[in-house]
Amino acid sequence: MANIKRLDSGASPLHYFGAELRLRRNAASLTCDQLGAQLYCTGALISQIETAVRHPTEDFIRRADDALGAEGALMRMWPLLKRSRLPYKHRQIAELESSATGIYAFQPQLVHGLLQTQAYARAVLGVLDRENLDTRIEAWMARQQVLTSEEPPMYWLVLSEAVLHQEIGGAEVMHEQLTRLLSYVDTRHVQIQVLPWEVGAHTGVDGGFRLYSFKDQPGILYSDGYGAQPTANPEEFADVSLRYDLLRAAALSIEDSARLIARVLEERYDPHPETGQFPLA
């Protein structure tokens, strides 16, 4: 008798998808090889996906959904599967972002993930670990869909002026990234302020953080740093909320922030008018 690996559908979204795929394949009386032939892949790949060894792609799920007559049931798992590709810390953040009614972020070093371009994200995520980088970037960028949903959260970002000058990925990447920031100027639910260097000491010197507000539950604070964990402690949330209000008061206005971003973009990252080449670091 063949050794059939027992599946634990509750272990993770990937395990759940694998169990559902096997259930529907068996209901269709198909072997892994037979289903693989219909999906233009090997039976071994089908088995690896069913046992949560491999992540399915969006295209694979779409073809499997059609072949097994799942009527969209498999495709509806795709957003959850994408998030499951992220490290645990980032999955926590993605889940908070997807359910929050308000997101209030302070970023002293990097552009916040919800506003990053793909090239900027690649430069950030690939610094220490390039394994499965394309897969991780795809999942990372999927978080941004929350800002274009039917009921997007109110998103307010205060970033240090240093973020504009920290040349992540090179001048061309930064040109695209600052252009992305400027594209939100007329977006009501996305507000961006820059904390200028001349402010000096400020209430965010301890590091970056995010405040998440929700419709029917307490707010959650997520601070940056190693081992950081979200907390719903009301005293801590209130304390950091006050710090955030003071940061917003110290930062440039929305309009002046946009002008500063545009000036840095032009002075540091615009291509040479004659050669069309981007400046070197």
From TrEMBL:
- List the coiled-coil residues: none
Q: Name one Pfam family in it.
A: DUF5753
- Which InterPro entries does UniProt cross-reference here? Cro/C1-type_HTH, DUF5753, Lambda_DNA-bd_dom_sf
GO MF entries: DNA binding
Domain of life from the UniProt record: Bacteria
Q: Which residues form the DUF5753 domain?
A: 91-263
Q: What name does the UniProt record give this protein?
A: XRE family transcriptional regulator
Native organism taxonomy: Bacteria, Bacillati, Actinomycetota, Actinomycetes, Kitasatosporales
